[in-house]
Amino acid sequence: MSTKPHLMGIAGVLLATSRLPARDAALAFAEVGIPIFPCARNGKRPLTAAGFHDSSCDFDQVRAWWERWPGANIGMPTGSRSGIDVVDIDVTSTDSGFAAFERASVAGLVDGELARVRTPSGGMHVYFPASEARPQHCWQAAAAHIDFRGTGGYVVVPPSTLSTDKERTSYRLCSLSAADATAVDAVALRTLVDPRATRTTSRPAPTTTPEPSRLALWVSKLQEGERNRGLFWAACRLTEAGFVPAAVEAALAPAAQTAGLPEWEIAATVNSASRKVAAVQPGGPGAPECGRTAPGSSRGDAPCLP
After folding, report:
1. What is the spatial distance between Cα 223 and Cα 200, in angstroms, rounded to a whole number?
2. How far apart are CA 145 and CA 296, in angstroms?
């Protein structure tokens, strides 16, 4: 609900960002308890080693980051880490997600928004409070040009800027909601905008020992909207089998590049898989395996990029 301090706080920060340089805006986010982290100047790539996993609202830490990278953009983790979920409406040269979002609005699925932020591409980030009782994970509906940024993802926030083909454009606040904000039902939203959300590329059947070449072939055939999550899943399988991050990257990176992922995103995803496996393996036998779900499932914990 909008009575939560961090929700009222982020509304005020978003309202003030048009008048603040990035460093002061970063400190303003931290001051109201919203964890953030630095991203590349005019870009989305995290500057810290663990990306959104390094996010912090510690004032001294945030100040130190922006003293080191004074021109850095501001990244905010979504989902349970910040208490904020984001519906990302994408725009391409030929299509956009605004029509799909309008269908969701007519159906009453996106009524509880907190704020809208215009993105440099002409798209929109629509902010919602995250559900404390039911964390929701990222997903991408590529055909509908709608992405959901929940637990496991992040967005770039105002007053950050991006360099496009023609100019440098900023993220900017469009509106704040006067009504009480409520969590969006991400499952219902995906069912509406992407009714064929079952995976188009089935994961390889599990074997006792994962074969790097077999997983690499599968990764190379991933399509837009499933590449990041698929690479994360494959990297988890190899990491669980005892491969070190460098070996996992060597095995999967060429295939991921064939699928269309950039080098920095591949490295970040492999590192994320390594951290995830390290976090669950101390539980010993029976500990949950990172990102492992049945073929055809859309649930998972893969990182989701802004």
Report:
1. 9
2. 21
